[in-house]
């Protein structure tokens, strides 16, 4: 374990004393204690629960060793000088490190340092104030189990012994404590009347929202966190599967055009039906629910006094409307709920009686949370500047749907989801059909809507068009008023990193708080990692934004935090992401030995034997392997060219997008080019997915929901390479994604395109390689067409974004 | 889905009416309803929670379709004749089958039949009584999500709306209902004074027990289920790993002996210290705990009013003593807790004050539950005939530790755990050392104890000795008084099926209730399967045994239930297991083409090239593949002989152990023989592990803990073979496991040994094969020795236990 904690607020003795009083470690009785050992014993006795007997708590203390010779109880009961090493011997045991297995008694302080755990600056032996400060810091230190000690004690029942005896909210070291009884939460449904009529039934769409909030919120207002999740009410996987498109067809020549960007942005104004007449008002919801589709970070926050609201939007189970996949109707689905939470929109208790219910329990400060589509709708909602939305925790989100399903005039699937498109996603999330009656009633309007999506997405050309422009949130990024916290996996091939890079650049000029974490995962959550205090950072941030506690969150949380790809459990800060401030232009040079160079030109074909083609269609991993490593026996050998750059003498870090600039020709009047930047070098690399750590279960509150501790570890065997980035372009879209240019067979064109951005450390002794090819078996359409591509080596380079440091 | 429900108790109109009244579906008001549709509407309104408004419940009903034209609300509100098809249209939707995806409206009754869901015998159209009976049956029918509808409603909050309004326990259709508030359970620790002093400190060992019980048990006694789990308080995985034995050493010649069985069974009598003097009595425990190491079936039972007790036994965290791996001390660790629960033993509130606490809340009826080691300790405890123990739910348990770590005079590891032994397991479970103070204090006694285990287990000879005899529960099987329910995976290579077969045969003559389920899993739990109502069977059984409800459990639950290996979601009953009533003796015939037969003898060697040896050591799967399929190029080709039996014209089912009878010689004065029975035939076969079904989460009570629905499915690709059974023998133990016979190099001996028992259907067109070899890379020691084995074909047969039907 190597600990990285950012969410420890600054403190001094006065703060420590005050806050320890608020969580009952100090009181009038303890003011009388005049011996440091006695004070530490008191802290331990208190930590082991007042609800347990003195004998049991003494038994617990005596199970720990304070020195080689003495158990902690014996040691402390002597009231002799308290050594720093004894304190940290006990501290490590409290943090669940085992003597023998994890550390040696005489080595506790060195071990604390090795683990990167904070050590209080105290005298040795310690005085009373030292014990107070060191104990305060220890409570805020993360245990081996990936949570802070105070959260660990909370999970043992520290606050649950007597929830009523603590202030609510209870802020300790800038973070909100789990002092809310999660076995006694209010769970209620409301129907928000959205300014939408997507199913054209002449009535505004009512959208179901599930609310979970502490009992206390009936009396004391709390902030709300909305997770807008179209998946939340169920999915239609079989139907989605059925609609999934065949991708084994060929690229075609496109008729050139001069489309301008402005003509794409058609905002239709829709005449909306009148709102329902409010026929009554109530504070009593009529509908409840049991097990919601939850998100463990929300569960963590629920125990800490934040209300959680789940809403799935138009066309989902028990809501009105139809699915639209990412357009303004979905944005409004989210903002309507935010408006209700902020007191600016009407909601009803059921779909018939027009009985209004207000979010009387909401303090009006709303945040959003969630990953993927759930993060996407945060960006969507934020770009409206909707009142009440104070903060977004955007994980692995789409900032522009074109960057999800398309790329530079090509149909490029999210990794692992060949054939998926906006219409497939619409069908999958149309959970309204789970009610048989609703499915039948709305069949016609839904069929029509689905047809419109299929047409609008246009799998024929792959061009950027009005459909995609209506789903490009970057257009309105400047309207964002909420503070934004982005989290994205640098290895996310589903929602690719360009999405976070672009929104990051778009919000750069805005006067909002902006944070970003770039991790080594794919399309995952990171809130149960051992090496980083993500949940605590989120707590600190939301406590600041929503509870308006001055806790220095914006200073404590790094602006950009990156997980290193070349070591375990290592995180560092960078100044910028994809800023392209220091770009090195490198000639591609001569391709790998064995490739035929003629007239300073190199060619590769795209078609394969039927057998090889089918093999790769069913095994994209094999294709990727052969693309990079395939020798002259490999089916890919003539289907790509590899340019190997010089072996590195020193580590370099790439930050941002590499840009391919080549002069190339197709043997046909159509063509696509793909490129990968690859790190070559037999080495240990991080596992693709984080692995469970010791099967450690993390409780998110006392006897509340749970998560499992995870971490990226090096794989057991070395691997020969790792893909750093990739990109694709339709040669006819060499100007941009919306304009089609002419392409003559055999004619050479200058073609530039960016690869996906990354922050990547290439180690000394390794070597970068650039691979140029056409069909991407994992993501592009696969026509197995008879095309030959030729690259003019003279004018072909790659621009590498080498970090300044 | 194909449903198999055994735990539906017989009922009639009177029972249905009475029980529906007890769960508030019927009352005085409903007695006035005179229209079948109105009665069904009332049932639906009630199912959708009284705590929700009438409008919301109407909304829920109107989301379902009753016919092609009408939603359920419209249909029922007409009060027209209620058709059976409309009832089952609605029923299937309540059971979470979706119209369109899962069934068509006009097809509901056929679909019920296809799914093997019970259909009430009613008139069409239905009368009032029909509706009552059909609704009653429907509530007891399993949904698509693998739980009964009444449990599904409970999970939605049906009982939780007002826990206080229901009888406790509430028996519905013979099963105990989840009417206990799991957010409000009592969690307390006691220290049971066991009649043991394993750490020789002159004081009886105090054993920690964690109790979880409903609040109501303070007033009304409840039954208790003990899970005795040595893993429960944590494990020392790193230390266990360290002690794991090297298995790459050679077999040696053993000196012949005439050991008799009787001389092995030495029962030492131990002088025990005097019990502690009780210094006080209390009903108030002093210690609590938060998240216990749970077992989902226990969680299911907790919501249904059974107290759950976890106890880890001697040498575990916060208990006294040292680990002994399966001997009488561990048995007594379990029975001591049972005795306390039955009022026959003293426990204290802590380890110092001698303050006695009784299980005043226990009704004295105790059961045990758990799998593997946890099941083993059930067999151990049951064989003492301890008072209070009424029933055991024994999953994948060891009945004789020799059959776990040894076989016929050989060290044979549990599959996947090469090098593990009784001492390794002792170290892994010695969680007492997790307290640093305890580890230091008991270091000497523990080192000595561990040494004794290592010596006793005797990895040198592999013979059955006094150490193993003290860990052979079969010796005392006749003392069992508790009713026994065995569950075992037919593919369990960890705790091999011989364990369940032997205990099953041992209890056969006893006048107790005996049940057995043999499933297609490995070493797994089966309580979240979609195709079988295991949890409900357990509920029925425990309700009968512990709550003493006359529910016909012993008749309803099949004596032996087997999961078919050759089809999905298929279970059937058999009369006996491993009864060997119909044995076919089949000559092995001539081995596969290519094997050299000389003088009607066939030979194979055991040694391999270093490369091949190392390869197989690290890849037992590859070894298994080559053993069965390896051609003349394979490294295994000369290291085994394969005898292929005739291709089958019809399916046959094997039931029990096949017996190998061969006349064989070793080229050395030592030798081991292994055999596998294999089903050859390219076919679809069940996955080795059950797979999640639709990511369906199963709540085990209202907002309580959860499990995931699972099921075995056919693998996506066909496979060429499946191992049916295997066995191993040291040629010097050809008489038995405890006597060593002489072995002269080159001399032929008659050798008989049983393969593991199985119940296995071999399909027509398939063919059985017998493979004879020596080293088992997955389980035996691996000496890579220069030995040649020769089999005399004339006198070599296999006895196949072919089922009579």
Question: Explain this structure to me?
Answer:
Chain A is an alpha+beta fold. In chain A, 25% of the residues lie in helices and 23% in strands. In chain A, helix 1 crosses helix 8 (128-139), helix 3 (36-47) packs parallel to helix 8 and helix 12 packs across helix 13 (373-382). Chain A starts with 12 loop residues before the first helix and ends with a strand. The mean pLDDT of chain A is 96.
Distinctive features:
homodimer; 805 residues; alpha+beta; Rossmann fold; Jelly Rolls; 3 domains; eleven-stranded mixed beta sheet; six-stranded antiparallel beta sheet; 31 strands; 23% strand; Xaa-Pro-like_dom (chains A, B); EC 3.4.14.11 (chains A, B); protease (chains A, B); hydrolase (chains A, B); Xaa-Pro dipeptidyl-peptidase (chains A, B)
Mean pLDDT of chain A, to the nearest integer, reads 96
CATH topology of the largest domain in chain A: Rossmann fold
What is the CA-based Rg of chain A, rounded?
29 Å
Give me the CATH architecture of the largest domain in chain A, please.
3-Layer(aba) Sandwich
Beta-sheet strand percentage of chain A? 15-25%
Summed up, the helix count of chain A is 23
CATH class of the largest domain in chain A: Alpha Beta
Oligomerization category of the chains in this entry: homodimer
Strand arrangement across the biggest beta sheet of chain A: 8-3-4-7-5-10-11-14-15-16-17
When the domains of chain A are counted, the total is 3
Summing up helix and strand content along with how strands pair, one would put the structural category of chain A as: alpha+beta
